[in-house]
Design a protein that fits this description.
Layout: E1 4-9, E2 12-13, E3 18-19, E4 41-46, H1 70-73, E5 100-109, E6 114-122
């Protein structure tokens, strides 16, 4: 989303709100699902670009450029449609309970003229 996002499953918040734009985030919603029933997923977003500078401390300011509430009606110098809220695809993805790769990190090995790929994984504790 563009700024502040809350995700709910069956009317229950699944984690803390995600704050910030232009970066991905995810939640494990497994414990919020009701097997054998219809489940409702809600992605709620809030983008306060119209009031960002009014009586807010600096640490709470939302960074904007040409993307603000005024540009919807008066697109000053931009050649695209102003948007706000959800601006990327939202999806649910099954991941195996045994664990999965969460990130691939390239590591430069300049001395040996190669790039190594270091995987990070979410491995579940099977002793539980």
């Amino acid at each position: 989303s563009d700024w502040y996002t809350k995700v709910y499953v069956n009317s229950v918040a699944v984690g803390p709100p995600h704050v910030g734009g232009y970066d991905s985030f995810s939640y494990d919603i497994t414990g919020f699902l009701k097997p054998g029933e219809d489940n409702v997923l809600v992605v709620g977003v809030y983008d306060d670009t119209g009031t960002i500078a009014k009586n807010k401390p600096v640490k709470e300011l939302q960074l904007t450029g040409k993307q603000n509430a005024d540009s919807f009606d008066n697109p000053f110098g931009i050649f695209y449609t102003s948007t706000s809220g959800i601006w990327q695809t939202v999806w649910c993805e099954f991941v195996p309970a045994a664990g999965y790769i969460t990130k691939l990190l390239p590591v430069a090995d300049i001395k040996n003229n190669r790039v190594l790929i270091k995987p990070e994984a979410n491995v579940l504790d099977r002793t539980e």
